[in-house]
Amino acid sequence: MPYGFHNKMLRVNLSTHEIALDEPGEEFFRTYLGGWGVIGHYLLKELVPGVDPLGPDNLLIFAPGVVTGAPVGGSGRHAVGAKSPLTGGFAASEAGGFWGAELKRAGWDGIVISGQAEEPVYLWIKDDHVEIRDASHLWGKKTADVEATLRKELGDERVRVAQCGLAGESRVRFASVMHDVNRAAGRTGLGAVMGSKSLKAVAVRGSGQVEVADRDKVRTVARWLRDHFMESGYLRGIHNDGTAGILISLDVRGGLPTRNFQQGSFDGAETITGETMTESILVERDTCFACPIYCKRCVEAAQPYQVDPVYGGPEYETVAALGSCCGVDDLEAIAYGNQLCNAYGLDTISTGVVIAWAMECFERGLLTPVDTGGLDLRFGDAAVMLGLIEQIANRQGFGNLLAEGCLRAAQEIGRGTERYAMQVKGQEIPLHEPRIKFGLDIGYATSPTGADHMHNVHDTALAREGAPIQNMRSLGILQPVAADYLGPEKVRLFKYRQAWRMLDNCLTLCMMMRDIFGADHICNLVQGVTGWNSSMFELMKVSERALAMAQAFNYREGFRPKDDVAHWRFSTPFEDGPAAGVRVPHEEIQRAIQLYYEMNGWDSDTGAPTAATLHELGLHWVAELLYE
Amino acid sequence: MPYGFHNKMLRVNLSTHEIALDEPGEEFFRTYLGGWGVIGHYLLKELVPGVDPLGPDNLLIFAPGVVTGAPVGGSGRHAVGAKSPLTGGFAASEAGGFWGAELKRAGWDGIVISGQAEEPVYLWIKDDHVEIRDASHLWGKKTADVEATLRKELGDERVRVAQCGLAGESRVRFASVMHDVNRAAGRTGLGAVMGSKSLKAVAVRGSGQVEVADRDKVRTVARWLRDHFMESGYLRGIHNDGTAGILISLDVRGGLPTRNFQQGSFDGAETITGETMTESILVERDTCFACPIYCKRCVEAAQPYQVDPVYGGPEYETVAALGSCCGVDDLEAIAYGNQLCNAYGLDTISTGVVIAWAMECFERGLLTPVDTGGLDLRFGDAAVMLGLIEQIANRQGFGNLLAEGCLRAAQEIGRGTERYAMQVKGQEIPLHEPRIKFGLDIGYATSPTGADHMHNVHDTALAREGAPIQNMRSLGILQPVAADYLGPEKVRLFKYRQAWRMLDNCLTLCMMMRDIFGADHICNLVQGVTGWNSSMFELMKVSERALAMAQAFNYREGFRPKDDVAHWRFSTPFEDGPAAGVRVPHEEIQRAIQLYYEMNGWDSDTGAPTAATLHELGLHWVAELLYE
Hints:
By secondary structure, chain A is α+β, with helices and mostly antiparallel strands. Chain A has 3 domains: 197 residues, Aldehyde Ferredoxin Oxidoreductase,  A, domain 1; 175 residues, Aldehyde Ferredoxin Oxidoreductase Protein, subunit A, domain 2; 194 residues, Aldehyde Ferredoxin Oxidoreductase Protein, subunit A, domain 3. A 6-stranded mixed sheet of chain A has the order 2-1-6-3-4-5. At the A-B interface, α1, α22, α23, α24 and α25 of A face α1, α22, α23, α24 and α25 of B.
């Protein structure tokens, strides 16, 4: 019997209500692992180029990886994928929690959903039992209510629920797919794809196990992580204060995105950082499947913002997006905004950055109350920020425009507002500042998912402080690379780090482990779970393969190098703050992007992976698809 | 203190008699490991393009690797390098035995020799003591005599000797550097470089150890090898019957190079194969430093050929080169030929193939007794074959022409003889037949060292028999590739296998271990010896780096893709034998070569690694060298 996978991909056609089984075989799982790899494979093989992302011909794919559900910290993740309604290109986003592990325990390696239901439905998976059920009573409900209702009607409190939320129903282009109420596959608008299929939820319950090939080997990795994670300053930090614990250090360095990235430090940073959260509204530390780290928050507040811990608590991205980026220094308001986004299924990053765009445009006089339905949009106004979240999710008033994402909204409005839309390929830029993380722009500009931090975060701080971190050494990067530098060494470092991250997105393993897992941990984990003799070379090639497939998909959808442009704002210096004067020279970053293309074996003219690159990755079928 | 290396490269200038020390640092050793990597580094950094390979400005480099001298089978190797007098390009060749380990035990990581002595000298290294000594009494002597003399005059029977032999003194362009009398760094004419420097020998004795970081980890690998190697059919075979044990299987498949590659099977194969050797002239199995496999032979014969076991016994390459390739079916004559080559320091491959070329030309009437000094050159004439070895080593008569290698000889003679010169870039083709090993031609045509098997052998048989071997699976090649196929899957397989081999040539680890060592063994060995956290990804990149440096060196010396051409003969089918009718279609192999270029990131027009490729490998300095 196979280990780490079941050789069972569930196929559901919501138009015909057909339920079927793919058994792609061991080679498939070893070649793609899961996550991005599996999503890329299905999208390239089955999607007709130019398909409407919100039409019946798009696929919605739930893709855990081979380590998902194995008894080791970091394995409680999966990816969701489709063609993106936000970018028009490759969409994938990952979520933690328990849903992915539960799907594996139910005996499934993933779900590929096609078609479109005529009436709202949900999918109920109990081990081999798969059923499409009426969801009209769930439509329009908040995520916590949906989960509670489903658990009740399915008679099992341990049912795990993935759902699209009201925002997905409304086809907000940056709607998320929510899991366990507070774990979002947030980016690239996958919730809208789910909503467009009238698929309200996927409820899962499994009674099995993820069988692993070598229990001792897996246990050794799991115990090592448990016993050592507190030695990592980063992991200790996120355990203590959540991911928002990093906020204050970014502010100190002048790289906390503030007021739509106009500034890099924020007066109110102290009041919204993770440490403050710990000391004020935190009621519980939460964690994902099998994970000892407990980086998740549960927060609670009463007046004026009724915050329910069932919706968890804000991550760093959320605090920065709804907080500093909107100029809001009220942590309880941010926590409430986080609750709204989780309840409605909105990506907190895009939500915050879209609102911040509107605020900047308003303050510059490019938007007026005539546009905003009378709203006075000012940075720092928490009530307006929260009101806009409601409007976006419900597609009401000005929120109906913002629900299109800042690029489309700006194109609709005109008047030069596009200049202030902090986006690449239509996706809002996450809350990491290239002016203190030189090279990150390469990822924002080139990522197949648009501006994205899930495979691009670039911790130059670590490199700058003398010793390159151990996992980069295990890949052969032996020298620290200066922070304020964009030359070839930086591009190489960026490429290797990105590949490491992308591997996490295939396995699918939590990226937080990067700070402590070396190549040996990853290899031992994969070997222990699957029984394969995989080397880090093989695994890095899976990662390169996944990226190449996503890039090939975008090429086929018409993306070209002209779409891979760094945002102009990062080439202008901050006027004040600790990073005052620092800019990412535009010509240098574009040169770096060009070099990154060539290092990846992507054609400089078309942006597509060359035939040779695809063949070298074993993607012979993609080479045929693109070049024959 | 460092493990696996001493951070001490010995520099010797024979023109000035200066002796100096390079301390290149840990990053250097981790980046290049040894062997090809170190040779490529020094040649690119220090050689002026266009330098005369036999002049004082060439370098001669002895380069063990980080695992050389560690207590594990396969670690008794090192590489020798220079600019080649045979090809005019990058030269490197590896040898087993004990010399490399002894150099490491003496506290040195390698020797870089420049200049040219006015009178014959030898180098005496006893730990830190390094001395250039007069060698006039050794000049012209046979290798066994030189070794015995040196041991006597140095008063230590355990002195290990590298030497150039009479052929090197005569600057035979395919002279080898001999170690322990019978371990040859045979290819690319390194003996001639040594001879041109009037450096007769390098005698070494060390009293130290190669300190390893984790003795248990190294011991575990060593014991595993000792306990399991007999489970490998290949290793059991070479233990029992030496490398020549494979000869009969090649004959059976119709791929034993016979009569200058005109045929693929040989009537006398049974009489010259390793099993016959075991049953007749074998007197002892020999082995290299720390190695449990004992694949080396010591053979003995009396009349008519006085064969002394001190010269070891013929490897497969030698038996095929002097035997089937020359049509000779007399094993004792072949053993005697092997002895002559080892005594004079001649590469047995080039020697046999040069003679076979002359025989074919003679039989075709392109050479006549006027050219050969009256010799009647016929395939199968052992006496003529042996006589020509003497002539070549002494540069006497017709042998003086053959000593130039078959390409230069043919160009001198003209009359269409070049057509029958089995060579690429001037180096004679080793005794592996692309018509049964589809894809091997890619290596023959493109290798920076000219036709070479030490990083190119392509065991399609293994792939053909259903299961790709385990070490290729650990790199992610999961499917067997059909033997008679030259498409993208084969090119990818070739590239990965070549990279694995090239890693052996950097580490420097015996390539025989490839059949049983997986990626984990290699990683554990490197980690255990050095204490680094190296992954297989890092190690494969070292290998790619070494190949890219050699390729860059050749580009700088004027080599271009037009020089990378598969031999026409392999595109013509055998007329009879088990592989009758099989040919390697010329257009297909050239297409495969083109794809291989692109997979490597080499420019199709110039053949040079692109700047992006060099940067991706961390070879920023080579990118500057070539492109700035």
